[in-house]
C-alpha cells in the first residue's frame, strides 16, 4: 500500500500499487485476501474506486463493526504493508467509455464506490456523455469523496450531482430527512425515453426499491444494472 486517504470517520481509501495490473473497467471489483500467521485465511470483495491508471488501484473501505477484514484494512494496515488481491472481477456492472448513452448513477451509502470509479473514468477518457448521480446518505458527514464530488459537479461539463439525506440534512436544506423515493428519482434522474444506462449500488433493500421505481417510471429493465451488499446506512 502506498497511500491512505480518510473519506469519513469510518471509511478510508487505500491506494495500492499492483505490479502487472492488467487494467480494469469502472464498476469492477477485487477480492482481498488476508492470511493469519496460523494459516487461517479469509477474503472479502471490494469495489475499485479509481479509474484505470497504470498499476494503481484504489479501494475505499467502510469499517464494519465486528467484521473480519474491514477493521484490519481500516485501522491496522499501514503504508508499505502488502495486500493480496485477486481481480479484476466482474463485467456486467461496468461502464465502458465507448458507450454514448446518458448515464444515471444512484448510490446508497458506500455504494458510491464503483459509481465514483465511473465518474472518474468518464473524466479520464475525456467523454462528454452526460452523467447524473443521485447519492443517498444518512448525513452530510457520511458523504464519500465530498470535496471531489463538489469540484466535479462544478467543473465537469455534463455531470450533475444530487443528494438525498435520510437522518440529518445540511443547514438550509429545503426538505426534512427522508428516504429516496419516486419524487427524487423522477426529478433528478433521466426521463425513460432518453434510454439511459442506469447503475444502482447500495444495500439490498435500497437497490430493489430504486430499481422498482425506475421500472415503474418506464425505464427498460434491461438497462437497469444493480450491485448490492448487506445492510448499511443508506
Automatic annotation (TrEMBL):
Its cofactor is FAD. The keyword Iron applies. It holds the Pfam family FAD_binding_6. Keywords: 2Fe-2S, Iron, Iron-sulfur, Metal-binding. The keyword Ribonucleoprotein does not apply. GO terms for molecular function: 2 iron, 2 sulfur cluster binding; oxidoreductase activity. CDD domains: FNR_iron_sulfur_binding_3. Signal peptide: none annotated. SUPFAM superfamilies: Ferredoxin reductase-like, C-terminal NADP-linked domain (SSF52343), Riboflavin synthase domain-like (SSF63380). It comes from the Bacteria. Residues 1-95 form the FAD-binding FR-type domain. PANTHER family: NADH OXIDOREDUCTASE HCR, PROTEIN RFBI. This is Ferredoxin-NADP reductase. It comes from Allocatelliglobosispora scoriae. The lineage of its organism: Bacteria, Bacillati, Actinomycetota, Actinomycetes, Micromonosporales.
Amino acid at each position: 500500500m502506498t497511500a491512505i486517504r480518510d473519506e469519513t470517520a469510518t471509511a478510508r481509501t487505500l491506494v495500492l500499487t499492483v505490479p502487472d495490473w492488467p487494467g480494469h473497467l469502472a464498476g469492477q471489483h477485487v477480492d482481498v485476501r488476508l492470511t493469519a500467521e496460523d494459516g487461517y485465511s479469509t477474503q472479502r470483495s471490494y469495489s475499485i474506486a479509481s479509474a484505470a491508471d497504470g498499476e494503481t488501484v484504489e479501494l475505499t473501505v467502510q469499517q464494519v463493526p465486528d467484521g473480519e477484514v474491514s477493521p484490519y484494512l481500516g485501522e491496522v494496515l499501514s503504508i508499505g504493508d502488502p495486500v493480496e488481491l485477486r481481480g479484476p472481477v466482474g463485467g456486467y456492472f461496468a461502464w465502458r467509455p465507448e458507450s454514448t448513452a446518458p448515464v444515471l448513477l444512484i448510490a446508497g451509502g458506500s455504494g458510491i464506490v464503483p459509481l465514483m470509479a465511473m465518474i472518474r473514468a468518464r473524466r479520464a477518457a475525456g467523454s462528454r456523455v452526460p452523467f447524473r448521480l443521485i447519492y443517498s446518505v444518512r448525513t452530510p458527514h457520511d458523504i464519500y469523496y465530498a470535496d471531489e464530488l463538489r469540484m466535479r459537479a462544478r467543473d465537469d461539463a455534463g455531470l450533475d450531482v444530487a443528494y438525498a439525506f435520510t437522518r440529518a440534512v445540511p443547514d438550509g436544506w429545503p426538505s426534512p430527512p427522508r428516504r429516496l423515493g419516486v419524487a427524487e428519482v423522477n426529478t433528478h434522474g433521466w426521463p425513460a425515453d432518453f434510454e439511459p444506462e442506469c447503475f444502482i449500488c447500495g444495500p439490498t433493500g435500497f437497490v430493489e426499491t430504486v430499481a422498482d421505481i425506475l421500472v415503474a417510471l418506464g425505464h427498460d429493465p434491461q438497462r437497469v444494472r444493480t450491485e448490492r451488499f448487506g445492510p448499511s446506512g443508506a
